[in-house]
Amino acid sequence: MARQQPAATAAPAAWSDYFPSIPYARGDHRAELSAELADFLSSDGGSSFVSALRPCGDGSYSLTVDYVALASQSGIGALPEALEFAPSEALACMAVAAHEVRRTPAH
After folding, report:
1. Using one digit for the tens of pLDDT, what is the confidence trace for 45-80?
2. What is the CATH architecture of 26-103?
């Protein structure tokens, strides 16, 4: 399922933390994966993954994830390939998404 992009092109708040040398662009594969992950994590199906966020005490959070379950439940086609061939990027996308979901108030 493709994410409907908003008209604004603002980067997610944590983008520069995880991709400091890469300018945010909506069409970038990292931006697309981060957006798809954020959509999934903010859905009913993704809530169990978000509930695993744990504060580390220094303002940061830890997230334990079963990536096989995440890939199968999210339906994000690019995720398994990203985890296999570019794991650092995939984990950074996951972190950006988790930050977005964590900072967005529940409806």
Report:
1. 999 999 888 888 887 888 899 999 999 999 999 999
2. 2-Layer Sandwich (3.30)
The model's pTM: 0.84
Distances (CA, A) of 106 to 5, 46, 101: 20, 13, 9
**Cα dihedral 60→49→13→36 (10° resolution):** 160
Domain boundaries, the chain: 26-103
- Closest by CA to 92, choosing from 31, 23, 3, 6, is 31
Give the C-alpha separation, 11 to 55, whole Å. Answer: 24
The rounded distance, in Å, linking the Cα atoms of 51 and 63 is 9
Q: Please name every residue paired with 63 in a beta bridge, in sequence order, or none if there are none.
A: 53
Tell me the per-residue pLDDT of 93-103, one tens digit each, with 9 for 90 and over: 999 999 999 87
State how far the Cα of 48 lies from the Cα of 42, in Å rounded to an integer. 10
